[in-house]
Write a structure and sequence with these properties.
about 80 residues; alpha+beta; SH3 type barrels; five-stranded antiparallel beta sheet; 2 helices; 5 strands; about 15% helix; Transcriptional_repressor_C
């Protein structure tokens, strides 16, 4: 499943990222924040408007906002 499909408060490991779907500067920013293959993440909450954008993503002890288009480029496996 991709990260955008992960339910709120569920934890997952990022197993693949299709960097070709992202602009180079966006990919660089995500990597700098630790959002890359092997990272354990959790969706804390989603935006309240129709597009449910942005997504509040917990990475380690940090919470960052990412776009749904970024989340769609990431394949994850849920951690139970």
């Amino acid at each position: 499943m991709n990260l955008d499909d992960l339910p709120v408060l569920s934890r997952a490991e990022i197993v693949a990222v299709d960097w070709s779907l992202l602009a180079p500067d966006e990919g660089k920013r995500l990597r700098a924040l630790g959002i890359d293959e092997g990272a354990h993440v959790e969706i804390a909450r989603r935006g309240i408007f129709a597009g449910k954008d942005p997504i509040a993503l917990v990475v380690g002890k940090m919470t960052v906002a990412i776009r749904r288009s970024h989340a769609k480029a990431m394949t994850v496996e849920e951690i139970r």
